[in-house]
């Protein structure tokens, strides 16, 4: 019975009491044993956890169930759901990743054919080698190539290899989440809630419909980076960050931040120093507003995709600026010690962080045979698109990642407090996540989502009662929002004439941000307001509590 009700608390961990002071367990050199009181009179027995592999330690059967559930979800999904029809199943960007996987050694050497993104026949002729942009996204194709060893590497073989890779990655994500929950002391309902939030998002539906993409590998490396950061494995985090540089480059920033500032497990209130938090946050909002206005100015000069009315520009830019202010203001005042040298900050970690972009950029220079598009231009277009409709980036992001992100918005002050208590790395990581969400395309925030889930679920677990009923309700909302049950259909190839108005295109890009139609924006906004209001009413009618340590025995 105790094994079934075991919580996940790391060695030397502590909780924060209702008054803000840390509640520490009594310690011994061999083990830690504690009990927590949870209404109604349920006790969770916790033991000190040994260091070891990801699926080792107490409760490892639950970790295996997490991974098996993720693998089963992907396997059943690939059997029952429809797939994209563009480029014989490769898709738009997938035609590049697929042909790269088919000819990976020769493509890296600069002699193999790699088709450019578009709707094309995968067997047609194309340019040789990789440009500088797609060199930094070649790792998933390399892994798919290794999975096809011994086969003819046809289009079908390539799609199956990417499908198997996505399935494996989602299993690793589930295992990493179990390791995070086990080491950080999340209760079992909170662990299940986080798992459902990670698995049941539109990311899963996207790769089920469109398997030849890099999304799931970037998602997996993000979850692995957070787990290694919490586990204190700096060399593993360094390796994962370097690998992310060739799969999902935005994750390099997150990995560097986590390398420099280690995880602080004690949840101690950080020293509050006098800091101009609100003025700095207001400056960040003003910079955001000016950046969006400048991008729109480029659009009016014919250098960008959108030409909105001045009122649309004003409303969208103000929404983005207010969002930047609201995110940064709770993080700065209690984290002024970010910029103060500390004894715990090791120069070795800083050296590893600096070494990551050096390795990635050197490899990019050696492999690429021609220049490619720049990320800065894509970010500029994303900022322009984010302000096309007021709050579009946030509405689309919640629709893409599910109700957990909505809970994070509602509980943001508590989430920010938890982040600063776990160290500057977590606070800066969440600030970067908000920044990438502003860039308009929801999937750009994918590598930060595991860190967001950890912060949101941790704040929720600390402040409110989480039981089976609550997890079931939130899990059901996540499944509905993920649209795993919704067939997307056949996409039209006449994009230039038909545009994004066909039902299949609307279903695929409803929460993408970049191609979200005003009608889908309005529908999602209304649904999110209704769900958010229902959550607020449900929380106010429930009993709030703080966990209480009862006893500690050696």
As laid out across the biggest beta sheet, the strand order is 4-3-5
How do the helices and strands follow one another from N- to C-terminus?
EEEEHHHHHHHHHHHHHHHHHHHHHHHHE
Mean pLDDT: 77
Computed structural class = mainly alpha
* Alpha carbon gyration radius: 23 Å
Largest pleated sheet = 3 strands, antiparallel
- End-to-end separation in angstroms reads 21 Å
Envelope shape: globular
Question: In percent, how helical is the residue content?
Answer: 55-70%
Describe the protein's architecture and organization.
There is one protein chain. By secondary structure, the chain is mostly helical. 57% of the residues lie in helices and 4% in strands. It has helices spanning 60-80, 94-102, 104-109, 132-135, 139-147, 155-184, 188-199, 202-209, 215-231, 234-244, 251-260, 277-300, 310-328, 347-367, 375-386, 392-401, 403-410, 412-421, 424-437, 449-463, 468-482, 495-498, 503-508, 518-540, and strands at 15-16, 22-23, 33-38, 42-47, 548-553. The chain has a 3-stranded antiparallel sheet, with no helix packed on it. The chain has a two-stranded antiparallel sheet with strand order 1-2. It is globular, with a radius of gyration of 23 Å.
């Amino acid at each position: 019975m105790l094994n079934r009700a075991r919580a996940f608390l790391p060695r030397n961990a502590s909780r924060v009491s209702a008054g803000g002071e840390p509640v520490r367990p009594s310690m011994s050199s061999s083990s830690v044993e504690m009990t927590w009181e949870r209404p109604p009179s349920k006790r969770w027995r916790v033991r000190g956890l040994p260091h070891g592999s990801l699926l080792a330690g107490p409760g490892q059967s639950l970790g295996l169930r997490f991974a098996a559930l993720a693998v089963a979800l992907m396997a059943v999904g690939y059997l029952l759901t429809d797939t994209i029809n563009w480029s014989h199943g490769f898709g738009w960007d997938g035609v590049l990743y697929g042909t790269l996987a088919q000819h990976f050694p020769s493509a890296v050497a600069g002699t193999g054919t790699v088709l450019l993104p578009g709707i094309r026949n995968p067997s047609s002729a194309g340019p040789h080698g990789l440009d500088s942009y797609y060199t930094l996204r070649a790792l998933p194709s390399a892994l798919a190539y290794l999975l096809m060893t011994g086969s003819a590497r046809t289009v079908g073989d390539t799609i199956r290899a990417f499908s198997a890779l996505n399935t494996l990655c989602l299993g690793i994500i589930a295992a990493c989440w179990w390791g995070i929950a086990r080491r950080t002391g999340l209760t079992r309902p909170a662990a299940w809630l986080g798992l459902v939030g990670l698995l049941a998002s539109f990311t899963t539906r996207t790769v089920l419909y469109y398997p030849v993409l890099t999304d799931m590998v970037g998602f997996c490396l993000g979850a692995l980076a957070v787990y290694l950061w919490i586990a204190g494995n700096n060399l593993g985090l360094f390796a994962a960050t370097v690998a992310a540089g060739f799969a999902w480059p935005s994750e390099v920033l997150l990995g560097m931040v986590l390398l420099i500032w280690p995880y602080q497990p004690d949840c101690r209130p950080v020293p509050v120093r006098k800091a101009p938090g609100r003025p700095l946050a207001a400056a960040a909002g003003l910079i955001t507003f000016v950046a969006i206005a400048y991008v729109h100015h480029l659009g009016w000069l014919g250098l960008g995709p959108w030409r909105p009315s001045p009122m649309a520009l004003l409303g969208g830019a103000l929404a983005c600026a207010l969002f930047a202010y609201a995110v940064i203001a709770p993080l700065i005042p209690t984290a002024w010690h970010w910029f103060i040298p500390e004894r715990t900050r090791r120069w070795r970690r800083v050296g590893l962080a600096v070494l990551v972009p050096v390795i990635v950029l050197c490899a990019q220079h050696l492999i690429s045979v021609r220049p490619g598009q720049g990320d800065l231009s894509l970010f500029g277009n994303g900022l322009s698109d984010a302000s096309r409709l007021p709050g579009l980036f946030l509405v689309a992001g919640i629709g893409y990642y599910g109700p957990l992100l909505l809970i994070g918005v509602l509980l943001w002050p508590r989430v920010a407090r938890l982040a600063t208590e776990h160290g500057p790395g977590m606070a800066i990581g969440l600030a970067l996540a908000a920044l990438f969400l502003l860039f308009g395309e929801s999937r750009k925030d994918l590598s930060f989502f595991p860190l967001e889930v950890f912060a949101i679920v941790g704040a929720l677990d600390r402040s409110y009662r989480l039981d089976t009923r609550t997890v079931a309700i939130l899990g059901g909302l996540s499944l509905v929002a993920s649209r795993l049950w919704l067939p997307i259909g056949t996409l039209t190839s006449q994009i230039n004439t038909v545009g994004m108005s066909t039902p299949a295109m609307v279903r695929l890009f409803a929460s993408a941000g970049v191609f979200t139609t005003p009608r889908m924006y309005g529908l999602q906004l209304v649904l999110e307001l209704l769900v958010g209001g229902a959550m607020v009413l449900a929380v106010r009618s429930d009993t709030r509590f703080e966990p209480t340590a009862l006893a500690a025995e050696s």
